[in-house]
Amino acid sequence: MAVNCATSNSQYDRLKEVKEFDESKMGVKGLSDSGITSIPRFFMHPPETLPCNNLNSSTNTTSIPLLDLANLNSPTHRPQIIQQINPQIIQQIKDAAATWGFFQVINHGIPASVLDETIRSITAFHEQPHEIKAKHYRRQEHHGVMYTSNNDLYRSKAATWHDSLQVFTAPEEMKG
């Protein structure tokens, strides 16, 4: 698919379109379920952010960064980890986050059944009717359940095609 790297000077009120989307509280899933036939413009990256010089690059065989925590889970390493995490792992996390923005963790010790149940629960939330999900749609973090689309919706040049479900479970501060 060809990408047009020419700049566009048309009159477009991105903030208005973003605000309408955000206030609908439908998120990307609701937008998709609504039967849209074209992607709203605020999801499209401006030409100046596209990698125009690398459009035909087929030599990139780099894979998603993989962090192996096998040694961290062994009983002999556990006490040492509590005091100080392996600097090599920390550097791998920093590098992956800075370069890719994400990474895959393996040998973390979380049972597959827990991961499967987490995925089932998140899917069940997103499959609920709009009216139920909208009760949790907000931009205020650190308070209970927060369902939102694009944490940086108002700050980014282009929205990403995802919704988020966050649950904050830290104890409330004691009032003295």
Can you describe this structure in just a few lines?
This protein is an alpha+beta fold. The chain has helices at 14-24, 27-33, 78-83, 87-99, 112-126, 130-134; strands spanning 66-68, 104-106, 145-149, 163-167. It is built from 6 helices and 4 strands; from the N terminus they run ααβααβααββ.
Walkthrough of the structure:
The chain is of the alpha+beta class. The strands form 2 sheets. A two-stranded parallel sheet has the order 1-2. Strands 3-4 form a two-stranded antiparallel ribbon. The protein is globular. The N terminus is likely disordered.
Give structural attributes.
two-stranded parallel ribbon; alpha+beta; 176 residues; 32% helix; disordered N terminus; two-stranded antiparallel ribbon
Helical stretch tally: 6
Name the helicity range: 25-40%
Instruction: Estimate what percentage of residues fall within beta strands.
Output: 5-15%
From the alpha carbons, calculate the radius of gyration and give it in angstroms. 21 Å
List the helices and strands and how they pair.
Layout (H helix, E strand, L loop, with lengths): L13 H11 L2 H7 L32 E3 L9 H6 L3 H13 L4 E3 L5 H15 L3 H5 L10 E5 L13 E5 L9
Parallel strand pairs: 1-2
Antiparallel strand pairs: 3-4
